[in-house]
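#lab-general

N.A. 3:47 PM
ok so I finally got the sequence cleaned up, no stray characters, all 259 residues accounted for. can someone with queue access submit it? mine expired

B.Y. 3:52 PM
send it over

N.A. 3:53 PM
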Amino acid sequence: MPRVNLEGSSSIVTGGASGIGEACARQLAELGSKVVVADLNEERGTKVADEIGGKFVKCDVSSIEDADAAIAAAAEMGPLRACVNSAGLGAAGRTVSRDGEPFPLDKFSFVIKVNLIGTFNMLSRAAAEMSKNEPLDDDGGRGAIVNLASAAAFDGQIGQCAYSASKAGVVGMALPIARDLAAVGVRVNTVAPGLIDTPIYGEGPESEAFKAHLGKSVLFPKRLGSAEELAFAVMDCITNPYMNAEVIRLDGGIRMPPK
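B.Y. 4:20 PM
back already:
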């Protein structure tokens, strides 16, 4: 069985304006897919989309209307075959602060809304569109979805109560959703990155020194992973027709300490 051919297809990458999402968008384009870069950063997202021959759609992943707009834009360019859910955020804070204050419920809820509910919103609506596709192969495969979780789903650190809960939810729904979508020929996989070198670490000598320090805690190789390396795993999940219902840690073997 050959790899899934994405030539002439369309795809969606949430959070595609930078970091992991951008790397995934660029690699999908290299595989012949027309990519919708779905992001809130209009300037950066438009630039990436223009460079790869895709289309930018301003998208709040927790909005049904925005999700449908991204899917409609993709469908105009070709059958939707791939959706990568990379958009996400965090809000650091202990469950109870040193001053005895509980973590604000609105912050906790917001992280869950974007990272978990937003992921489900995008994937469910993308899968509905994929279910209309003609099968690509004798197995009846119509598309593939990859959700980005995090090593924090398993090794959540101090101050990551909201983030870890949201990403553990993404991991937890992987198998039941893959089982649901088997009926329509859509595969679902999850990639859980460890320490990846993205723009969140900033730039300059101090940033580089900090990243080098973090890299020492990685088993091997002793460095942060690159967005490109992460995207390689995402592409494998999309193009390997037998890859389904998996959660893959891509973290250089790190197991995060409490802090």
